[in-house]
Write a structure and sequence with these properties.
mainly beta; 3-stranded antiparallel sheet; 3 helices; globular
Length: 530
């Protein structure tokens, strides 16, 4: 038994007292860590109120040269665990509820993986994102949304001028050349000539409906034969109204101006200049689609008027008997057997009403025609596009003195992309022209042409054209066969400026006497466009 105040008791009491002191100090240190107050007994090189963060070392720094990080309560905690220092402010990422709009980024900001960042004008790996996402440069919220233009494939094609929701393509072509036979008569005189060809095309870029138009003109003036000068013009405005997905309404207004071809039997002798005719017309139609079946019908009215013929002796001759109205109805039914292949049948009815009886034979040349056709429309992998049709026309005249005009008609407009550098175009057209030759009902005019374009370089295009035509004068034992061959070279200096050169040879062979001719034309020019 130890006595009070003995040395052994005193030693045990001192030991217990020291242990209790160390426990109190430990508790005090833990409390100070909880409150963020640094303890004098805590061996740390960093301030617990600003705990060290781990980040990518700067370039040129090795692991051996990096400063040693002192463990702290926040460093030892997990990413989602409790931060005992209270220095890390946890930021909760707000999730977008389904159906709610995306947040609108600030103007000039770059959206990367859903987080807006300030744009620096350069694309980096962080902006692209490690998950394969791409960065979108956002537009201001009030910026107008415009439909993008289709990409330009040919670097030398004009880009046009954007005016609102329309694309305009203006151009003008100037040329000068020599024609060995401007009058298209046997052994006719030659003359130099100039040409001016302006053109304007317009088209809308609406998601629905369509509105567009084109205007082309030309004037050919001869140096030594002003009587052979020829103006021409061709313009139209077209539109489409999409009422529903399968129902549409079409409309068109058109205008054309020209003259009879030199050497035509419809021209009087001793003309001071070629008489000009004008044609005005409108068309309206409707089309309905039933799955693969497409039905359409349209009607049109056209008015043709001729100027009086001016003779070299100062007198004039009226051409009122050549003026007439034409009323026309066309209906078509097509069926899409496979994508890009659509056969069709078409029925064409028209009536021509002349203002007066022809002065050549005092006969009313009013008539009506019936023309059924069958054909097919192509769009095969964009290598063969267009349509071709074959039909038979029958035109009956009011006067029994005029024979019924009958004949085959062929119409075609096919474009074949043979290779990436070569394009072949096949054009065919048939029509019935009016005439003032006594006893002749009309002229069945048929033309077919083949054109091959080859790009030696993107800026150097070679073109070869071959044409053949036949004019059959019903009621007169005359047939004219026309042949033409031309070679064209186009040098595209830029999108806006092209140089062109052309050589064309023409022949006419007829069973009538004294009308055969040859003509050689050489022309050089420039084309300016936008």
């Amino acid at each position: 038994m130890c006595k009070r105040g003995s040395p052994l008791l005193s030693g045990w009491s001192r030991a217990v007292t020291v242990a209790l002191g160390f426990a109190a100090v430990a508790l005090a240190g833990e409390a100070s860590a909880q409150t963020g107050t640094r303890s004098l007994f805590q061996p740390s090189l960093t301030d617990p109120n600003n705990a060290q963060r781990f980040s990518k070392p700067p370039e040129g720094t090795t692991r051996a040269t990096q400063p040693a990080a002192t463990p702290s309560a926040s460093a030892s905690a997990g990413e989602t665990g409790f931060d005992s220092t209270g220095s890390i402010a946890k930021k909760r990422k707000l999730k977008r509820k389904p159906g709610s709009p995306f947040p609108v980024p600030r103007a000039g900001a770059v959206t990367v993986l859903g987080a807006p960042q300030q744009s620096t004008g350069q694309t980096s790996a962080q902006q692209i994102g490690v998950r394969g996402a791409y960065a979108n440069v956002s537009k201001p919220p009030d910026a107008p949304v415009r439909r993008p233009l289709p990409p330009s494939i040919d670097p030398f094609e004009p880009v046009g001028v954007r005016v609102g929701e329309f694309l305009l393509r203006p151009s003008v072509e100037l040329g000068y050349g020599i024609d060995s036979n401007p009058n298209r008569t046997p052994n006719g005189p030659r003359s130099g000539f100039y040409q001016v060809l302006p053109e304007l095309q317009a088209k809308s870029f609406w998601s629905r409906h369509e509105l567009g138009g084109s205007l082309r003109g030309s004037y050919t003036g001869y140096d030594s034969l002003p009587s052979a000068n020829r103006p021409t013009a061709d313009g139209k405005v077209f539109g489409r109204l999409d009422a529903t997905h399968d129902l549409r309404f079409d409309g068109e207004g058109r205008f054309s101006m020209g003259t009879d071809n030199p050497g035509s039997p419809n021209l009087q002798a001793g003309l001071a200049k070629l008489p000009i005719f004008t044609i005005w017309g409108v068309t309206a139609g409707v089309a309905q689609r039933f799955n693969r079946l497409d039905l359409s019908v349209k009607g049109s009215v056209d008015r043709t008027e001729f100027q009086d013929s001016e003779l070299v002796d100062g007198t004039s001759v009226s051409n009122q008997d050549r003026n007439y109205y034409q009323y026309r109805v066309q209906s078509r039914a097509s069926y899409e057997f496979t994508p890009g292949l659509k056969p069709f049948v078409e029925l064409d009815l028209d009536q021509r009403k002349h203002d007066a009886a022809c002065t050549c034979d005092a006969i009313d040349r009013s008539s009506s025609a019936f023309t059924p056709k069958a054909g097919v429309t192509f769009e095969l992998a964009r290598r063969l596009t267009g349509e071709v049709s074959v039909g038979y026309t029958t035109r009956d005249y009011v006067s029994p003195a005029l024979d019924t005009l009958r004949g085959w008609v062929i119409d075609s407009s096919l474009v074949w992309a043979a290779t990436g550098l070569t394009t072949v175009t096949l054009l065919a057209n048939s029509r019935v022209d009016e005439t003032v030759v006594a006893g002749v009902s009309g002229t069945l005019r048929q033309d077919v042409g083949l054109q091959v374009d080859h790009a030696f370089r993107r800026w150097l295009i070679g073109t070869v054209k071959v044409g053949y035509g036949m004019d059959d004068y019903v009621g007169w034992d005359r047939q004219d066969k026309r042949t033409s061959l031309s070679a064209i070279i186009t040098y595209k200096m830029s999108r806006e400026f092209w140089l062109k050169g052309e050589f064309r040879q023409e022949w006419l062979r007829s069973n009538a006497l004294g009308v055969n001719y040859d003509a050689s034309i050489f022309l050089v020019g420039v084309k300016m466009q936008r």
